[in-house]
Amino acid sequence: MEQQKNENEKKIKKICVFCGSRAGNKASFAEATLQLGKLLVEKEIDLVYGGGSAGLMGLISQTVHNGGRHVLGVIPRALIPEAVLGETVGELKIVADMHERKAEMAKNSDAFIALPGGYGTMEELLEIIAWLQLGIHSKPVGLLNVDGYYDNLLTLFDKGVEEGFIDDSARNIFVHAETAEELIEKLEMSKETDITLNLKRKRSS
């Protein structure tokens, strides 16, 4: 009974997806988003996202909702006219500002994935990685590197290590992959091993 309880606690039940409110210039971005949405449905994982109905946000939310899983969108009141174009799906929670949005998304998620997106997506990704490094949360973070979209960002992280601004032990506290299947598998492994615990061990060694 206790073993089953521990296994349930390790299982990823809700994933927060950071992604663009635009579709981007490549069909592969939408295809990867659709693939991720279908995989969440297949694995019976619910979605937490930024609440928009356009671009990749709209595609991931519609896909997961149509598959019968719960969708929670979290959006600041000021962004509603810009981000919500047409009908949204699932549950929509309106918050006061961007800070409350990120806190609410983090509170309601077991793991995080960043799809391609603009400044907002990158800011959300970097903040959730920083929170992980600081021990504010211990949830796995993954980056879906579609068509090399995040290659330059990963190179920048390597430069940060090289120049002494990022610890070696912190460079790999998040995972990345080119396909949704591989990324979810890595996130599940990270959930089981507890990234934060491993990071603390490396710091103390």
Explain what this protein looks like in three dimensions.
A seven-stranded parallel sheet has the order 4-3-2-1-5-6-7, with helices on both faces. It has ten helices and seven strands. It is of the alpha/beta class and 205 residues long. Helix 2 packs parallel to helix 3 (55-66). Helix content is 52%, strand content 15%. The chain has helices at 2-10, 27-42, 55-66, 80-83, 98-107, 119-134, 151-162, 168-171, 180-193, 195-204, and strands spanning 14-18, 46-49, 71-76, 91-95, 111-114, 141-144, 175-177. The radius of gyration is 17 Å and the shape is globular. The protein starts with a helix and ends with a helix.
